[in-house]
Amino acid sequence: MIRTGISLLALLAATPALAEDADEIVVTALGIEQPTDEVGQAVTVIDEKTIETRQNVSIADLLITTPGVRFNRADAVGGVTGISIRGAETTQTLVLLDGVKINDPSVIGDAYDFGNLLTGNIRRIEILRGSNSVVYGSQAIGGVVNIMSAEPGEGFGGSASVDYGYADTLNAKADISGSTGIASGSAGVAYFRTDGISAAQGGTEKDGYENIATHAKLKLAFTDNLSLDLRGYYIHADLDTDIFFGAPAESTDSSKLDQYVGYAGLNLSSFDGKLTQRAAVTWFRNDRDYFFAPSSAPDYGYSGTNLRFEYEGVYQPVDQAKLVFGYEHERPKYDSFFYDFFTGDKVVSGAEVNIDSVYALAVVKPFVGLSVTGGVRHDDHSQFGGATTFGANANYTPNEGRTNIRASYGEGFRAPSLYQIYDATYGNLDLKPERSKSYDIGFDQSLDEGRAMISVTAFRRDTRDQIYFDGFALPFGRYVNLTRTRAKGVEAALTLKPVDALTVVAAYSYIDAIDRSEGGLNEGRRLPRRAKDAVSVSADYDWSFGLSTGATVTMVGDSFNDAANTQRLDGYARLDLRASLPINEHLEIYGRIDNVTDEEYATVYGYSTYGRSAYGGVRVRF
User: Fold this and answer.
1) Average pLDDT rounded to a whole number, residues 1-9
2) Across 121-125, 260-264, 400-404, 473-477, least confident range
3) What's the burial of 181, exposed, middle or buried (CB within 10 Å: 0-12/13-18/19+)?
4) pLDDT, tens digit, 9 for 90 and up, residues 65-74
5) What's the half-sphere exposure (Cβ side, CA atoms, 13 Å) at 508?
6) Burial state string for 264-283 with b = 16 or more CB within 10 A and e = fewer than 16
7) Whole-angstrom distance, CA of residue 63 vs CA of residue 71
8) Does 17 score more than 80 pLDDT?
9) pLDDT level of residue 423 (50, 70, 90 thresholds)
């Protein structure tokens, strides 16, 4: 059934239609604002209306409805969640939150755990697919996920919502924004708690979860040319989970997380706006403590910190040419502790490195309709030395954005994580950075004055020196450079608006991600937890009397849980329903039913996912 459904929707997505609004502005491709018809890379935008309409709690559940994205979650809501873009490792996804790089230096591979990032205060997400280390440096091999909280608005206003449902789940959030004189700002808080389900499949003990998130933004416009941006984000999370040894088993294990994100940036415009400059300091800290049983002290824990300085300049002497250049310095650091099993002594370890980077990109429009971008970056890592990356892309539109033909080439690299380098048991000081080359070509087409939109992209990425854990290395295994991988495939996104009241959005992707290590144990096998086929279709209808109803169908093909392809993860099809009804201009009631058919599936072997569950709530605006 899954294969048939995917094939039919793939054929549907291949019929002529259109892409994103040519007037839409994105910031992720170049790190600055650009109209989409100037961007030669594949970028998908999830806007505020979509986030509110879908009613999803987890950011990951929104991301998997976009082309080329796969995810795995080891646990229910709040469990460790990884995002893979175009078949890349989850450690090869770079993540930004309000302009701050939030990949965790204390996690294996500097990955970011999406499990604790909920949609409460989030208003916009941009997903860039393809290697792009020229702009972002280490990590951006698969792509970039750029997440933004609410921006300050004109005047004064706010909103609040609360909903309740299955497993005694409470989800509440509130935010305000306003401006006066030279100052504008916004702030918000979100709270989520649930009794949950058993993390281990077949278990009976419920594993609960609680999450509190706050954010604040303040902008001071001293003059028309000089302003100061201050941003902050904080998450605290408590998760009950089940112990993992081979397969999850019920236990009293739990964890606590505190995550801090800070940004302070000064913006200056000069020479009649031809030169804009930004200097910023960003700070990220992630503290994770783990408990074998309820107690007053953790049994082991990790702390990752990254302090960055960023300078960026944009010089545009004429409309047809733009130069982007910059310098970055960052100092990632990790600390860990555990208690020796035999002596009971506390064992503490840690490390830090310094990374200095310079980059330059040029955007040139040689004639009307054509935009060409090219750039180079050099990163100097205090442990493994220098890495230079190149990138180029082009976008041609013969008809003012109704048709866009795109092509891009991007190089990516990922520095070995501090854990992979310095861990006393598994670390390897001789590791080299992972390197990739990514190619794609695609088109966007608009028909019927924007009522039909399609985007189709073919891609390929080759990665070398990929880091993996060699369990056979003496004495206890260690991290080595061995694996070569290749990922290739096709992505398609379709939007239809046959009448004003109906919107249909579909996304399909085929990803063939293979281990290509010559002579390796897993040569020719599929990379784990990356289904070849995935499709998502969402439809929303606004009735004449105010009611809005919608549904999302997500179908994912079979995959394997392990590199040896011995543990199969069966494909699944999931249906979610939603509705909302405004009572007046300030009050709205809403609700949803997730996994309507009560599908049983897993994205990580041995871990549970939610069955059929219903939620309802109320939203107010002022």
Assistant:
1) 40
2) 473-477
3) exposed
4) 999 999 999 8
5) 20
6) ebebebeeeeeebebbbebe
7) 8
8) no
9) confident
* Structure token pair of residue 88: 């890349």
Could you list the beta-strand ranges (E) of 181-225: 183-197, 207-221
Query: Lowest mean pLDDT: which of 186-190, 219-223, 246-250, 475-479?
Result: 246-250
- Token couple for 15: 């019929």
- Phi first, then psi, for residue 551 (nearest 5°) are -150, 150
Secondary structure tally for the chain: helices H, strands E: 5, 36
List the domains of the chain with CATH numbers: 2-621 (2.40.170.20)
Residue type, 44: T
Q: Which amino acid is residue 169, in one-letter code?
A: T
**SS3 category, 27:** coil
175 C-beta neighbours (distance < 10 Å), count? 22
Q: How do strand 34-35 and strand 403-414 relate by DSSP bridges?
A: unpaired
pLDDT over 80 at 10, yes or no:
no
- Tokens representing 7 are 């094939």
Average pLDDT over residues 247-261: 91
Tell me the per-residue pLDDT of 434-451, one tens digit each, with 9 for 90 and over: 999 999 999 999 998 889
Q: Which residues pair with 436 in a beta bridge?
A: 412, 463
- How many of the other CB atoms lie within 10 Å of CB of 546? 12
Report d(CA 176, CA 431) in Å as an integer: 48
Residue reference for tokens 């080759």? 462
In the chain, the amino acid numbered 110 is: D
At residue 143 the predicted structure's pLDDT band, cuts being 50, 70 and 90, is very high
Q: Give residue-wise pLDDT tens across range 557-579.
A: 999 999 899 999 999 999 999 99
The residue whose two tokens read 């009794």 is 195
What's the per-residue H, E or C state across 321-352?
EEEEEEEEEEEEEEEEEEECCCCCCEEEEEEE
pLDDT at 23: 62
pTM of the model: 0.94
Q: Which residues are registered as beta bridge partners of 345? A: none
Length of the chain as a residue count: 622
Distance CA 233, CA 190 (A): 11
233 and 261 Cβ atoms separated by less than 8 Å = yes
Helix (H) or strand (E) holding 301: strand 300-318
CA 116/CA 82 separation, integer angstroms:
11
Whole-number Å distance between alpha carbons of 480 and 22: 45
Per-residue 3-state assignment (H helix, E strand, C coil) for 462-499: EEEEEEEEECCCCCCCEEEEEEEEEEEEEEEEEEECCC
Burial class (CB in 10 A: 0-12, 13-18, 19+), 127: buried
pLDDT at 3 over 80: no
CB-hemisphere CA count at 13 Å for 461?
A: 35
Whether the predicted pLDDT of 14 surpasses 60? no
Dihedral angle at the C-alpha atoms of 285, 288, 294, 298, nearest 10 degrees? -90
Amino acid at 23: D
Q: Which residues contact 8 (CB under 8 A, 6 or more apart)?
A: none
Query: To which residue do tokens 């002290």 refer?
Result: 297
Alpha helices, DSSP H only, in 42-198?
48-54, 59-63, 133-136
* Bridge pairing between strands 122-129 and 226-240: unpaired
Tokens 């079979």, residue? 558
